[in-house]
## 1
Amino acid sequence: MTPPEKTDSPKNVAVSTHMQFEDNRLLSLLFGEYDKYITRIEQQLSISILSRGNQLLISGLSGQVDIAKTAIKALYKRLEKGLMISVSEVDAALRMATESNNRGNFAEEFNGDAKAIRTRRKQIVARTPMQAEYMQLLADKDLIFGLGPAGTGKTYLAVAMAVSQLVENKVERIILSRPAVEAGERLGFLPGDLREKIDPYLRPLYDALYDMLPADQVLRRMASNEIEIAPLAFMRGRTLSNAFVILDEAQNTTSVQMKMFLTRLGEGSKMAVTGDLSQVDLPRGVRSGLRDATEILRGVDGVGFAQFREEDVVRHPLVTRIVRAYAKADKTSSQYQQES
């Protein structure tokens, strides 16, 4: 018996559809200089977008056209709200539109609604559905773990939430910490006193702060200890009350260090712990305290976990491909070792 002829699924049917917009000025901003934003959408989705006055004609496979329409509507709405767009926003809209079409809902956070984090210098909105979920956890939970690869916004969003709560007087201070574990270098080889030796390890936290607050406010708040940046070793014996506490690069803590840090949480405080378990720099044979904590505390009331994936990388698109390549190599290496 001859098998029935295979037909295309609805997402693989070639279609064309129109979109109409009221404001030609906003439509020009939507296209970008030299049509770079629309061209990027075309390239990412392998579709065609033609402009006819205040209308767009979008042609391609139906699933990709649907994603384009969802992303374009979100970007246009952003422009209507007086917010600007860039290549980063275009990529974010495409990511969130793709995810929403798979799950049936589009995250309003992209347009600054609901879960936007507001600081003195900018308004931060989610660029992936997982970022939106993470932002909600940061608002709702007292202890939050942000896990996943580099470039997913784990630390940046935690610092943004901390700054937002500080300027709104919801906490009295921010405490940012990192374990001083070297990735191949040695602290003793660096010039200067202890503070100068530690500063390079804490630079990503400084960078995030300066992105959220004017430079003079960062310096003033650091001088008054409203913002404190310290290595993990300085946390022992303290009780951190009325503070937003962040531990970055937590995969490089030992189990003893992690327990010590988590038990510093005091009254009126929140704690965010971020790390990537694929980038542990501890000596061979030393188990990561972050891995222990995720296994021991999962399911504990008041603790939230956000697990970022390769698809959540919001840096240069090449970073996503790099992360995937390394993950594939690690998987191949593990399989080879098991077979050996």
## 2
Amino acid sequence: MTDAHTAGPFIAAIDQGTTSSRCIVFDRDGRIVAVDQKEHEQIFPRPGWVEHDAAEIWNNVQEVVAGAMVKAKVVREDILAIGITNQRETTMLWDKRTGQPVHNAIVWQDTRTDTLCKELGGDVGQDRFRRETGLPLAAYFAGPKIAWLLDNVEGLRERAEAGDLLFGTMDSWVVWNLTGGVNGGVHVTDVTNASRTLMMNLSDLNWNEEIAAAIGVPMQVLPEIRSSSEVYGEVKGGTLGGLLGGVPVASALGDQQAALFGQTCYDVGEAKSTYGTGTFMLMNTGEKLIHSESGLITTVGYQIGEDDPVYALEGSIAVTGSLVQWMRDQMGLIGTAAEIETLASSVEDNGGAYFVPAFSGLFAPYWRSDARGVIAGLTRYVTKAHIARAVLEATAWQTREIADAMTKDSGVELAALKVDGGMTSNNLLMQFLADVLDAPVVRPMVAETTCLGAAYAAGLAVGFWQSTDDLRANWRRAAEWTPSMDAEHREGEYKNWLKAVERTMGWIEE
């Protein structure tokens, strides 16, 4: 008897994330047919430095694509297109003749370019390139990471200027390898990933040569910027060539923009927040480019083929899910991530304790790399259960700060927040989030919205779905939390939270 084969058509999406790579196969209703996932090593050469081995990541990507196809029992003919979403800003350079990375990738969380960013700011400071790029000068973004590699790894600047090296964020690396690598691989990035380099003009979606020169990045290493939803090339060669040869590679979106797309936030004012390692909240601002006055980032939300780009305001929080991991791995206060909810639920409130996890500085809306984590308000009364509760509350308060900034910048009140990511399984946190935002919090049926967004964009590019209306029709609500906290209590707690945030600043002296 032969194995039953699952008839398509399907779309496959690769999610090259910060801690793992996975592949999900989706059907026309946006439902998951199969998933395969594999973690990669986190490399910490020094405090504040974080690296990945890009060759290991590419091997894992090939494994999970093959694994998902086996689990889904599908063959090449069933897969109409493959889409890609990726951890953003993580930066690598590779040799275009050998296809080998010339150094580990420098991860988005890495802070080694702090000093370089300060130097680049000069007299102007953090906002030197903000008008053009929508971004503050911060260690988070890719451009300065490229310059660091070129200036600190022997011989790289010469090789880059000779045209032998290619830069990419992980989308570019995966697309280049998928489409043939050294044998004609396509060197592209999409507008969402390009908008995180500090080197792309938001207004015309082109590389800004003056800024690249100021940062110290030669134009010849940069990929071509394309839309988020179009056919970049076809799968060819390598282990996947046999499995998926000829299948169009048809989308690329940075993970947070992919989640915005997967959550079907296609109207102005619609927002989503993804609760993973860090947390990222994006609000669709339509074709209008809003320059934030409140510490948010202006970014490209997505661009479908030839259509005008859709912009978004984004607030990023460095530490949310990783704070729970820290409680588990470094502190040993819980055995599994899920235990935090049980522990936190065993007390009525935070016992007066507030935890601001500024482990690598504060991201939005402050952008203070001199901040470090604090637990404030400690008394003998506080137990580990109160700390657990303060850990969860930290995620909600940080979201509230960003929601406030978005309202201030856009003039649009948050009507509801669509949420996704691992932490949304924590009911205590989701309820507290609704309470502090004073708005409903809604979780969709398919929690894997990042992968779904990449699949949607790829499917649109090949006509599997006709329009965003088809995609919106797929969105289904799984759970909703409505606010139940009284206003006075909410504002009192928020005030305490903001006091605790102040205590984190200025810890690191230059």
## 3
Amino acid sequence: MRAERLIVCLFAAAFLAGCASRPINERIDQVDPMAGYRPHLLITKIPNNDHSTLFVLSFSGGGTRAAAFSYGVLEELRRTEIEVDGQRRRLIDEVDVITGVSGGSFTALAYALYGDRLFDEYEERFLKRDVQGALVGRAFNPVNWRKYIGGTAGRSELAAEYYDEILFENATFADLLKKPGPVAIATGTDLSTGSRLAFFQNDFDLLCSDLNKVHLSRAAATSSAVPVVLSPVTFNNYGGTCGYRYPPWVAEVDDPKTRVRPSGRAVQRYHDMQRFQNSAERPYIHLVDGGVSDNIGVRGVLEAIEELAASAKFRGEVGFGQYHRIVLLVVDSHSSPKTDWDRKERPPGMVVQLLQSAGVPIERYSFETVETMKDIAEIWKWRRELQVDELRLQGMSKAEAEAQVPEVSLQVLNVSFSQIKDPEQRAYLMNLPTSFVLKPEEVDRLREAAGETMRQSLGYGKVVREFGGTLED
């Protein structure tokens, strides 16, 4: 397996390469909730966009396999024409937010940076490049040993330098503030607590740090820092020193006696936020692959829904009242290589066990997360129907009752290998490795499979028709 060879090579490189001084994230003295890379500030500035719909893409992890499959989704959204307010547009222009972890974070961040230019350059710059081989080569290069000895940086910082050279061009999150496209949010996992830390200013407020100065390459390196294979990415924590105020939903879930339900995930997130604020005991935050805590990038969306439901004040602060529909398109690049382990008495070797023990629970949790989102969509419908029925019992007409209870629909779509109808094609993609190198034909088949799966999806077709569009054959 190519993934196994990567682990073996980088284990060796770990002993050869030391550490150098890492980039230092800058402190902020005072939180400014009206500035910085914040979704609720940026979404309203997206041109040619229906602001009554919140359209979120979620790109899973999975190395180049995930990067290519999610890129194929963007290509299909770009090909799909719709009609909004009597004007012909592309469905990709309706996308407001893209969350990404690990391999998916590269596509999310690169599209936010490049826009349509991505479709001319991404394959050559990243997808069809031997990124894995280049990283291993740099780790073994004696020139880099001298550079990475005696400090606090590691192999992931070396990777971030390479990502800047081939893809991100030293861009920072401040550069994204000037872009007209969707907000891209990569995620890392706190090695100590398992908490998520997302690369948007709301989360960096917890560290009292300025996200504007952080390079996109460092966010991508963090989100793809597979434990053991790559080193954690370290950030200075200044939390508790900049006048940070918890969002209004915290007051609604903090007291167990008066807690709004359901809010279990929101309560857990509040506890995570408290730990980030404790810089006296945690002056450094070590982050690894975002897929460890959320391999499909949906956990943050799930928590946000609970937080919005808990607090009307919070909904007002982020402008949630403008939305009548939320569309969440989950792009899951989970693979399931065929094995013969269960036919043999002797178990697989150590490296294979390491990969399997990390991947299986993550994928099971990912499946449950998507299903939970679908369940929430049905609960929203049911609750509105109950509220309308109660008002009608009080004497209102159906039209009056429905006007009193505005509808906010939640549509959850899933694009994954398991939905591919052709068994041969499905097996082929399921057996692709989790690595940062694929053959050009493998990349092309992933892209084509993404578009074909979307066109065959009844849920996706419904969304396109609701936007006044039609699907190509």
